[in-house]
Automatic annotation (TrEMBL):
The lineage of its organism: Bacteria, Thermotogati, Deinococcota, Deinococci, Thermales. GO terms for cellular component: cytosol. Homodimer. It comes from the Bacteria. This is tRNA (guanine-N(1)-)-methyltransferase. Transmembrane segments: none annotated. Keywords: Cytoplasm, Methyltransferase, S-adenosyl-L-methionine, Transferase, tRNA processing.
Length: 239
């Protein structure tokens, strides 16, 4: 998997590529990454990349000619992705789809964003949430983290991501490790029992319970809702 980041602030991206599993995957050749400085495509002696908006208004807008020149320098690519609060939500499903691509170009905005004509040169726009950041770098790194971990060999246990939150429409079940008791808080007995079937039932129940309490809309989205929610309520009544 290859990633190309287009940004006005390359030093926001580069340190992220030098630590943890991402760095190891880059060293092993499982991933490759390039950081393109948008300023290199700026105009004139001062490498200008932005201008005032037509029609007036606050802030500056990144020029289409500058942005498209940077995009075209990174082609060919499977996807050119604009990170924008106006984009479609970035979900686990989208991460899984993108993880099967060979080359992603991630376009990071600043100021008031890009000239709207840039949208004609991207394959999709993605948002990581209903809020506004100072720029697209954090969102681009979120895409990197979510997709890279799905590339075979990047994480140690290839089965681990199959139990992640959202993979089956639910939040992940709670995890515990030593010590068995900490400040009066005990690990659930079933996890110490050695009964694998009982453990599996407990984890399924806890995943459902967490999802119902914290993100009930996920159950509706996954069309699990009434059937398993009723099953959970029955299990709760039985203790």
């Amino acid at each position: 998997m290859r990633y190309t980041f287009i940004t006005l602030f390359p030093q926001l991206i580069r340190p992220w590529l030098e630590e943890s599993l991402i760095a190891k995957a880059l060293q092993r050749g499982l991933l490759s990454a390039e950081v393109v400085d948008l300023r290199a495509f700026g105009l004139g002696r001062h490498r200008s990349v932005d201008d005032t908006p037509y029609g007036g208004g606050a802030g500056m807008v990144i020029r289409a000619d500058v942005a498209v020149a940077a995009i075209e320098s990174a082609l060919p690519a499977d996807e050119v992705i604009l990170l924008s609060p106006a984009g479609r939500p970035f979900t686990q499903e989208v991460a899984e789809e993108l993880s099967r691509k060979e080359h992603l170009v991630l376009l990071c905005g600043r100021y008031e964003g890009f000239d709207a004509r840039v949208e004609a040169f991207v394959t999709r726009s993605l948002s990581i949430g209903d809020y506004v950041l100072m720029g697209g770098e954090v969102a681009a790194l979120a895409v990197l983290e979510a997709t890279a971990r799905l590339v075979p060999g990047v994480i140690g246990d290839p089965m681990s991501h199959r139990e992640d939150s959202f993979v089956r429409g639910l939040l992940d079940y709670p995890h515990y490790t030593r010590p068995p008791e900490f400040r009066g808080l005990k690990v659930p007995e079933v996890l110490l029992s050695g009964d694998h079937e009982a453990v599996a039932r407990f984890r399924r129940k806890e995943a459902l319970k967490r999802t119902l309490e914290l993100r009930p809309e996920l159950l509706l989205r996954a069309r699990i809702g009434a059937l398993e929610a009723g099953w959970l309520a029955e299990m709760d009544r039985e203790g």
